[in-house]
Design goal:
It is built from 16 helices and eleven strands. It is of the alpha/beta class. The chain folds into two domains: 280 residues, Aldolase class I (TIM Barrel, Alpha-Beta Barrel); 69 residues, no CATH class. The strands form two sheets. The protein has an eight-stranded parallel β-barrel, surrounded by seven helices. Helix 3 runs parallel beside helix 4 and helix 13 packs parallel to helix 14. The longest helix has 19 residues. The chain starts with 5 loop residues before the first helix and ends in a 7-residue tail after the last strand.
């Protein structure tokens, strides 16, 4: 989750081509005797644990259990995720202390079947779903699977990849290669003749149907109806189309909080999904996270905008006994919990205003020169759309929804008070 991306974004294109022990009664009795009544806010608030041991996890739970209600076991790429006993021990402890859990059990790596851990060795995930539902009841919220799929799509060095491999894609007899070859031909036309695309349907099809639709983890989780969570920093609309039930917008890296919320909130509302916000790094070196005051403001903005989930990303686990979290951030989290459970805040979650962007226009929107689907470096639409977004955010703030023209999800289905289109003059 928002770890340094330099290595992963170079590997992505090549990897794409290669592609019931505890009874209900005993559990209920044990947990009921420990749980204490606690305020119940209208959202799940917590931390995403990125540590390496059960002892670290329990220490963090003890620190935050009185002012959170969510624990994300975000250890999908370390030894914890490979050990069912440790996963269940940590989640038992979290649930016994009144917290709901979301569990990251790693990626099902199609390039290395021998590396699949216990979770992915099952032919069906139905038994695991049943086991954990019986064990933790409605405290088990779902599985956090994969990471930043949309952001990696935007940041992968596709043009360099095509320079070396593009002409060979036609000979590879698998659908993903054929789809990539069709995009390669569009890129070649741009390079040879300066011909920019008139639509981005091929790129959206590749991302939704190949990158996500052919992912065996997505397939297995969808088949078992286990809710899927992911955090991302772009292309939220297509994360949902690809099967995710909930997307956490990453708030960090000095990006626009209001814009990230507008993107994920609009996508979730139009597609009838849930959304959340996760506070990630501001810096790529210590202290990593923003100040407690800024984190409080980001959480409150997300809460007022209607986020169902709000969490702080706690990684790497090498700064304090609690990872990168310091007393400053803990106090901000505690203050936020106290405020939302004792005070009334403005509800900005109702559909007020939408900006409708072109069909399948997968622009990163982080800056004027951001990529489109990771393939395209420019478009005659990015500048006017960027201007529209800036003007509407200045006027409407986090009440803005950024959505896309899609016949499957017409904007008329939502009772917005104001609807603006990218190709119309915006008069505020």
């Amino acid at each position: 989750m928002s770890r340094p991306r330099q290595v992963r974004k170079y590997l992505l294109p090549t990897l794409l081509i290669l592609i019931l022990a505890i009874s209900i009664l005993a559990t209920y009795t044990a947990y009921s005797s420990i749980n204490k009544p606690k305020a119940n806010p209208s959202a799940y608030i917590g931390v995403a644990f990125g540590g390496n041991t059960t002892q670290e996890a329990k220490l963090l739970i003890d620190r935050v259990k009185s002012y959170t209600n969510l624990f994300i076991l975000d250890s999908g790429r370390n030894s914890i995720s490979q050990n069912q006993t440790e996963v269940e021990e940590i989640c038992d402890y979290a649930v016994s202390n009144g917290l709901s859990v979301i569990i990251n059990i790693g990626i099902k790596d199609v390039t290395n079947p021998a590396g699949w851990n216990w979770f992915w060795q099952a032919q069906s995930l139905d038994a695991i779903k049943q086991r954990w539902t019986q064990r933790w009841g409605d405290k088990f919220l779902g599985i956090y699977y994969n990471d930043e799929v949309g952001g990696l799509q935007l940041d992968a060095r596709w043009r360099i990849f095509y320079t070396y491999y593009g002409s060979h894609l036609k000979a590879i007899g698998v659908p993903i290669a054929k789809d990539l070859y069709s995009i390669y031909l569009k890129l070649k036309a741009d390079v040879d003749n300066g011909t920019l695309p008139t639509n981005y349907d091929a790129e959206a099809n590749f991302f939704v149907n190949d990158v996500m639709g052919m992912d065996p983890g997505v397939q297995n989780l969808t088949s078992s109806k286990i809710p899927m969570f992911i955090s991302d920093y772009g292309l939220y609309w297509w994360d949902y189309l690809g099967g995710y039930n909930t997307v956490f917008a990453e708030l960090g890296w000095n990006g626009s909080v209001a814009e990230q919320i507008a993107e994920v909130k609009g996508a979730a509302r139009m597609q009838n999904k849930d959304w959340g916000a996760i506070i990630v790094w501001k810096y790529d070196q210590p202290p990593y996270l923003d100040s407690g005051e800024e984190i409080y403001n980001q959480m409150l903005t997300s809460y007022e905008a209607g986020a169902k989930y709000i969490a702080i990303f706690d990684f790497p686990y090498n700064q304090t006994a609690y990872g990168v979290l310091t007393n400053d951030q803990f106090l901000a989290l505690q203050r936020f919990w106290s405020d939302i459970t004792t005070k009334k805040f403005t509800d900005l979650s109702a559909p007020e205003v939408a900006l409708v962007l072109p069909h399948n226009f997968g622009w990163g929107m982080r800056n004027p020169n951001d990529t489109i689907w990771g393939f395209w470096l420019s478009s005659n639409m990015t500048q006017p759309i960027g201007t529209d977004i800036s003007e509407l955010l200045a006027r409407y703030g986090p009440t803005l929804d950024i959505v896309f023209d899609d016949p499957a999800y017409p904007v008329s289905n939502v009772p917005y008070q104001h609807v603006y289109y990218w190709n119309q003059t915006i008069t505020l």
